[in-house]
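Reminder: ligand-aware prediction takes two inputs, not one.
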Amino acid sequence: MRFASNVYIVTGGASGIGRAITKLLSDEGALVMIADHDLHAGHDAVEEYGDRVRFTRCDVARENEVKRVVSATIRWGGRLDGVVNNAGLANPAIGPIEKLELSVWNTFIATNLTGAFLCAKHAIAGLRRSHGAIVNIGSTRAVQSEPETLPYSASKGGIAALTHSLAISLGPEIRVNCIEPGWIATSTFAARDRRKAPKLSKRDHAQHPAGRVGTPEDIANLCAWLLSAEAGFVTGAVYVSDGGMTRKMIYL
Ligand code: NDP
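Here is what comes back for the chain with NDP:
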């Protein structure tokens, strides 16, 4: 029970990686507020994980909604120990840049980057009081790309820079770190009626130096450690969890 009596906000905590983080933190004693815009998955998570988990519908790109979630969390738990900025538009492929509408670009930046800024901004007072921590979920796409993934990659590059900038601005009271996941198969952490086994081939697994595609639990375990007192000397850092893919040299 590493997190007994601690209180966290997990954005995008209703599905995928965020849901695995919610489960792990609540399993270890924390109160977790899910801030997500998926009503169905949010209510399903509360039903599945019980009294230590609550859900507030929220679009992280809207400042008034973020403010509301932070206040509701502190009213509920009496304190705030950490924020996991995980909500994101997770599908990076958007087509050729010549056809990329400004509105699409703006939506990616607003959700994936501005959302993390807004959550940090409104959580600071609570986190200062508890000497808390922020974990931002970036992506290995901050440092490498497939074609036609511009706004997603740019938003995740921004998350890495936001992380060190926040860490330097908010220390020593608040630690801020970033996880850059590689390929994580998330379908087992959907709402229960949408859950399915991941469709992965032997090749998908074998191309990873670690021998497999990642799981939401891989990221949840690292996130929990970064939030915990065991990581008390770690701030401003970026942790890659990608089965070794960004270290692998590929010549076709
Ligand atoms: P999922 O789509 O499975 O879950 C993301 C959750 O966030 C969903 O419930 C989604 O709701 C919600 N969400 C999306 N936009 C908003 C918003 N504006 N406000 C509040 N909630 C929102 O994504 P993953 O678990 O795959 O990804 C989680 C994070 O990890 C993302 O930041 C992603 O970029 C990052 N990541 C994921 C990787 C992967 O391989 N899965 C790899 C690298 C990074 P809804 O479903 O209704 O949109």
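Residues 3 and 106 are 36 Å apart (CA to CA). Helices lie at 16-27, 39-49, 63-77, 102-130, 150-170, 202-206, 216-227. We will return to this case in the review session.
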